[in-house]
Specification:
108 residues; mainly alpha; 434 Repressor (Amino-terminal Domain); 5 helices; elongated
Amino acid sequence: MSVKKKTTVELLKESEKTVMTHKQEWFNEKMAAVSPEIMSEVQLSADIIARIDAVLKQKNMTQRDLAKRMGRSEAVISRWTSGFPNLTLKSIAEISTALGEPLVRIAE
């Protein structure tokens, strides 16, 4: 009876799957420890960033265009639209005004 030896590629794929499983377990463990308030804050930030991106695309605008309209640097706009910025109500209002579109709507 012959035993089929695994190729280096097969061994690497198996190793990669194991590493990804451990990373996913680690991530899930860390996420379970995050408070609901922090999760809500992160979700709100992500939603606002997605809204800014959607309005920019809808209006065929770039971050550079938004920066010019706001009198801000491109770096500031980039910081606001990547990662999870701590946007203030003032900055949200400024962005909304510059885009001519609301970023946040309050449910009644």
